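Here is one chain, start to finish.
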Amino acid sequence: MTAAPQFSLFIPFCNERALLQVAVDKALAVFGSLPGGFELLLVDDGSSDGSESIAVGLAQRHPEVHLVRHPRRLGYGAVLTTGYRAARGAVIAYSDVDMPAPLEHFAQALPLLKDADLVVGYPIGVSKPIHRHLYTWGYGWMVRTLLQLRVRDVNFSFKLLRRSLVDELQLGAETGFIDAELLDQARALGGRRLEVPVPYQRRSKGRSHFDSPVVAWRTGAELVRYWRAKR
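Its structure:
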């Protein structure tokens, strides 16, 4: 096995044929010459639209790219947990395949980990449908109220963590609640958190898997179960 890289980025996806190639090309362009080495993990949550075949081809063509697959769809929490466990870098981050945060900002944030254990981004310049703003506001209120966790945007997919912190996490969430679970555990472990503003990019193709009241309900319900278990 080759030496562990300095930086690991993983991209979770499920049925994202239109975006996967674009995301990988961008990641390789931004991080391909990063000092200390770089790996890109593609974590497939049971795709069936052909994006899994695209991922296989990308891993075969690029030595930095590795594919991890779930045989069936297990959900967002499971796919992020798989990514964190599989990543080997000294610093680990993930980006959703629609790249809501410009990947260049991950590279710019790496030096900040000299004085922090995790760097958490919050979006600026956000343009979303009103119902998505309501989901974000309502869920953020629940996280602040129940967990006393004051983060500008809990679920924004811009988080860089030291390997030493990731190794201490015991993640078990099944939904998008995994981001709040991660931040709550990091706080309990004494992790030093730094928040930074990051420009928001709208999805260019397809539809977000989170744009659903059912998904919002399941995420909120898992937060409540976690809170009750802690009491």
